Amino acid sequence: MMIDKNEITGIILAGGRSSRFGSNKALYKVGTTTMLQKSVELLQPNCSEIFISGDCPEYAAYPVKCISDIIKDIGPLGGIWSTLKCINTPYALYLTCDMPYLTNHILLQLMQMDKSTQMACWKDSNGNMQLFPLLLSRELLPAIEKKIVAQSYNIRSLAEHCKHQFLPIPYQDEICFHNINRLKDIAV
Fold it and tell me: Which spans in the chain are helix H?
């Protein structure tokens, strides 16, 4: 049975430094919209509410509340931990702000996970875990807190401690998972 949108909070991870990009990539326009706005638009029909994990002053222009990292500079796991502590739904659907080619059908497939699944994401044709988009159960909060205390910030290793499911990325959808780290990464 598909996880209902009322059981999911959408989170956009947008707290990185964008050092390789040269400026805040979340605010960069691909086509006519910023990468951050694209993520907001993807989550809106699929989630009960949406938050931005990050605290850039320019994010105030978006109709989405921001959640700052409780512990700074520990990467995406810090944003995941900080936001999971703040939400009320049983699940969080995480996107990064730098995946402008992501489509709604990719998100809908994650939402079709069995409700006993605690972590769901994708694997590429080589068997490599594609972390985002990522569906996480709030039940993982204690396991994530243990990782934070141990200063172990690897998200992939979280799968070892929970019921997880990895979906294979179909060849025709590979572009959907392309993330932008440098300006030259943007497909023309």
Answer: 35-43, 76-84, 104-111, 141-149
- Token pair of 151, please? 């200063």
SS3 content of the chain, % helix, strand, coil (to 5): 35, 25, 40
Closest CA to 95 of 83, 107, 105: 107
Please state, in angstroms and rounded to a whole number, the distance separating the CA atoms of residues 91 and 7.
Answer: 6
Taking the C-alpha atoms of residue 13 and residue 123, their distance in angstroms, rounded to an integer, is: 20
pLDDT, tens only, 41-83: 999 999 999 999 988 888 888 889 999 999 988 989 999 999 9
The pTM (predicted TM-score) of the whole model is: 0.92
Is residue 183 predicted with pLDDT exceeding 80?
A: no
Instruction: Specify the pairing of strand 65-67 against strand 91-96.
Output: unpaired
Domain coordinates of the chain in residue numbers?
5-185
SS (H, E, C) 59-109: HHHCCCEEECCCCCCCCHHHHHHHHHCCCCCCEEEEEECCCCCCCHHHHHH
CATH for 5-185, options being 3.90.550.10, 3.40.50.300, 3.40.50.720, 2.20.25.10: 3.90.550.10
